[in-house]
Each structure stands twice: as C-alpha cells, then as structure tokens.
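Q: Hi! Curious about what Amidohydrolase looks like structurally. Here's the sequence.
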Amino acid sequence: MKKIYLLALSIILISCNKEQQATADLIITNAKIYTVDNDFSVATAMAVKDGKILATGTNAEVQVYSATQTIDAQGKAIVPGLIDGHCHFYGLGQQLQRVDLVGTKSYDEVLERISSFQKEKNKSFIIGRGWDQNDWEIQEFPSNQELNEMFPNTPVAITRIDGHAMIANQAALDAAGITITTDASGGAIEIKNGELTGILVDNPMELVEAVFPKETTQESIASLMAAQDINLSYGLTTVDDAGLFKETIELIDSLQQAGDLKVKMYAMISNTPENLDYYLNKGIIKTDRLNVRSVKFYADGALGSRGAAMKEPYSDRHDHYGALLSPIETIKETAARIAATEYQMNTHAIGDSANYVVLKTYQELLKDKTDRRWRIEHAQIVDSADFNLFDEQNILPSVQPTHATSDMYWAQDRVGADRIKGAYAYQTLLKQSKRIALGTDYPVEQVNPFLTFYAAVARQDTSGYPEGGFLPEQALSREDALRGMTIWAAYFNFEETEKGSLEPGKAADFVILNDNIMEIPVTQLHQATVKSTFINGEQVYESK
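A: Let's find out. The predicted structure is below.
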C-alpha cells in the first residue's frame, strides 16, 4: 500500500512539474532572434516567465509552453535590450528644459535661439547647451559682448556641445565671482585686452554651475521621466549614467521602486569628496534596476575645445597642449582610494597624454589584482606605443562611435596625420581587450543607438561621407557592434550573468526591431527604428 501511495505521489509531482514547466507569461514566435550568446545563435521563438527568459529555440520547441500572451513577430528581428555604455541620462532630461543649441550654424543663430527661448520661458538664469564653433564659418570662440547687451541683468551660461567649454555673460561671471585674477587651474579663463571674454574651459566652468538655480524635486522627476521616454523609444533598456550625485541617485532609486522609472541604471558617481566618502564606505548598491559601483573621474577636457591633454602641442595651435584637470598625484591618490574598495574607476581620457597617465596609474595599482574592469571612457587619442596597456580583465575601453564621425571633419587638423592613426581606434582596442563597450555620450551626441551602430560599422556620417569610411581599418563588424551594445556593455557593468543576451535565466530585456540591423544595407542602418521595447518581460514602449 505504501509503495502504491509513493508511486501515485510521484506521478502527481511529475505532472505538477510538467504543468509548471509548460506555463509561460509570454511567447514570441516567427521571429529572427539574435540571442548574442557565445555562439551568436539565432532562434525563431522565445518564452518569457516572471520577467526572465524561459527558453529560446524553434517555434515547435517553444510552443510546448502555453502562455497568457503570444506575439507573432511576423519575421521581425529581435535583439537583447540595448545598453548605452556611456551617457548622461539625467543631463539629457535637464537639457530638455533648457535652451537647445545643437545644430546652430553661427553665433548669430545661437543668440537668436536664446532670445526666442527667453521670450517664451522668462527664466531668472538662462542655461543652454549644444553650440559647436567647429560648425560655424568662423571657427573661433566668440566673446560675451552680445550676451551682455541682450541680458545685462540676467545671467546666461551656454555650454559647448561636449560639455567642456562655456560662454558666460557678465551677469553670470559676477554671480560666480569670476574675475581676471580667478584661479584657472585645470582649464582656462579667457582674457583679452585685460578683460574677460566670457569663455571658460573645463574646471572654471564649475564656478558658474555652482550658482545655477537648484532644481525642485518635481523638476528633477520631470527630467528623468522625459529622458526615459526618449530612451525607451530607441530600445535602450539599460543606461550607464556617467556622473551622478547622491540626491539624484536616490531619486532614481525611489522612482524605480515605485514602478515609474522602468529603465535600468548603471550609475557612476561623480568624483566629489562627499560622494566618495558616502559610497566608498557604504559599498556597492544593487537592486534589479539600479547598480551603483563605479566612480566617474575626469582626467582632461575635450578635443573640440582643445582641452584634451596631449603629449605634443596641438597641430593647429602652437605651444598648446591642453591640460589635465587634476594634478597627477591627485589622480593617483583617488585611484588608490578606489582600488582599496570594490568600486570600479571610470576615467574620462581624450588626449594621448591623459590616456597614458591614466593607463599607467591603472596598471600600477591593479598589477596584482584580477577582474577589476576599470574603464577608460572615450580612449579617444591613444599613442600607438600605449595600446598594449589595455588588457582583458583590469583595463577596458569604453568608446562612443559617433564621436569619430562627428569629429572627423577637423580631428586631423587638431592632432596631425601621425597621431590621427591612434584616434577612435576601436578595432585596435578590441583586439587588445577582447571586448569593447559602445555608448553615445548623449546629449553630446544624439540618443539614437542606431547611429552608434552605423558609425561603428560604416565609419561614415549619414550622407555617406567619406567614401570608404573614416579610418576604415578601425571599423567593427555588425556582430561585434551588437555585442558592444549588449553583452560586452553588460560585462563592463559586472552584469553579464543577468542581462546582455537572450539566454534562459536572464532578464527578458529585448527589442523588436522594424528593421533588421544585421541584414539591411549598411547605408540604411542609421534609419532603423524600434517596434517594441520590453524590460523584465514588460512592454514599456510600442511605436505608433
């Protein structure tokens, strides 16, 4: 009798297990699913349960499951949720509330946009971003004379597209306490004929930013939610925000916990004494949607504003080398402090001198450590002798392909024909480190990750210039570009076991594309669009 009872119980348990295994929340069939697993295998169907990938395979293999929701993909391509390896998510949201100067073709157009903005908004402090003197007929920094005349009593501060130069009117300079005797270490305060021109480069900009009006909580929430809408529409499910303060990180966490902010965040804390004291002592903070375990550090400025630190003078400015934003000893001391914790150090380095200093600092501190995954953000101009300082475990390159196609019109003028060979060298970096993370650096560039994909593969602008591509030997394959925007980016975030590929047990973060970026002509890649975006199995965006 006992044997019969046990046999019956076993049959019941087996039946229950089969019934449980055969149930899913969502099944997608008739798709072309790029799983981005180790074999880069392609499936036609996928099952999702409890926010995780349950199975991938053929239609027949996946249809053994029953589901409350089914989607016939009608042959569309599906890729893992895209990860922006370096962006400014919160900054994008803030910029949406400010003067947009992107695409201006002259300083007069900049002034027109500011005037129109102020007539509509009537701000007590006018803040904007996006101008680029390299796009103007006269490719020089302007002065603040017109801004002083237009706004004698209202502070105005407008930042260059790269975030590393600013034009401030006299009212803003006065509010910040900036005079001709103000210390300009780690940057520049331009003075002509004994007077301030309003041009600030790198560190002195912080003096003006310190007197910006403080955002209300509701304004900050509005910024975050507006940024989310844009990101989800492009299939971005995880974003690496390169520089956040405690107050913003805690607001992000609260919105995620409340279910309002769906996007996942890899937060790099801004390098301030307050942030370091708090987070390095507290340790890693990890939830399903938030990961705080890295420090964003600035080694130098940007190439476009000639603030990038170079080993030799700029080719288009005699005796000008750019500048490190912190003394080398400060870089080493900060790195040593971070190395003593579990935190990752992610350092902005553009010029070959800045890259060398950071690479050597990393190498010395991490020589006896494994799997630290410290990142060089941008790795833009690297001396050919220094590429071997990158490695597979401790020192990794995080790059933004659209920087190459934005800068290519004038980059060689800045650095010359020899140094340009080590610029935007994504294929060389990939061969050295075996992985490379791709991002946009928005709002410096556009949010659109398909521009990232196109720039990485084609090395051209959207008009097809230049023929054959800019430094075409540094182009990535489509497979490697997709890896750089998914599984490799997840690896750089210590998250490769939970996202970045569509494999059983991983988060059901995925994107249904209107255009198959793995098959359409290269010339069409930048025009690709998203049909649907899913995070943890939940549809968070549907195109209209």
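A: A fun detail: The longest strand covers residues 236-244.
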